[in-house]
């Protein structure tokens, strides 16, 4: 955050509409990819996400005994939106190339966590969900990893 505050309001809004991208920077799997979240980035969906965050900030301001964040000079709707764009940050960012049926063109994984058309590669992470699963993505990810463990062990024992 820009500045020092005695406290912090947390506004939990999982923006499901952000068209972020992850691009490889080289063929070396150890090189850090280029990650651009593009929060509040485009069109109607970006504006809807920004509006939802600003409404959440407004509820926090109303509920607080004393306004600490955002600063009192952030008073207009335009200033609130700019503040949200400048200060909002994500936690456990995720994407959605989900598990799904063979006839689903968006489903890159089968029900055994295997990447379609790629031998020997499985994905176990938040990206398997058709929609980002709420506020704390990691909880659903833990459950998916348990299921994937069971699937992988069962396949190994059957082989």
TrEMBL record:
Pfam families membership: GMC_oxred_C
Glucose-methanol-choline oxidoreductase C-terminal domain location: 18-143
Gene3D superfamilies with a match to the protein in the record: FAD/NAD(P)-binding domain, Glucose Oxidase, domain 3
A molecular function GO annotation: oxidoreductase activity, acting on CH-OH group of donors
Domain of life: Eukaryota
Family as reported in the entry's similarity comment: Belongs to the GMC oxidoreductase family.
Protein name: GMC oxidoreductase
Organism, as annotated: Colletotrichum tabaci
């Amino acid at each position: 955050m820009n500045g020092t505050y005695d406290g912090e309001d947390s506004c939990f809004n999982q923006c499901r509409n952000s068209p972020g991208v992850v691009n490889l920077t080289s063929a070396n799997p150890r090189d850090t990819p280029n990650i651009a979240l593009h929060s509040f980035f485009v069109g109607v969906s970006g504006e809807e996400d920004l509006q939802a965050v600003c409404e959440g900030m407004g509820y926090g301001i109303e509920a607080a005994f004393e306004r600490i964040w955002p600063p009192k000079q952030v008073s207009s709707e335009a200033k609130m939106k700019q503040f949200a764009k400048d200060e909002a940050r994500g936690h456990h960012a995720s994407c959605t190339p989900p598990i799904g049926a063979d006839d689903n063109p968006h489903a890159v994984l089968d029900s055994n966590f295997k990447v379609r058309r790629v031998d020997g590669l499985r994905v176990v992470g938040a990206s398997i969900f058709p929609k980002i699963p709420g506020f704390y993505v990691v909880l659903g990810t833990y459950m998916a990893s348990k299921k994937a463990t069971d699937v992988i062990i069962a396949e190994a024992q059957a082989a």
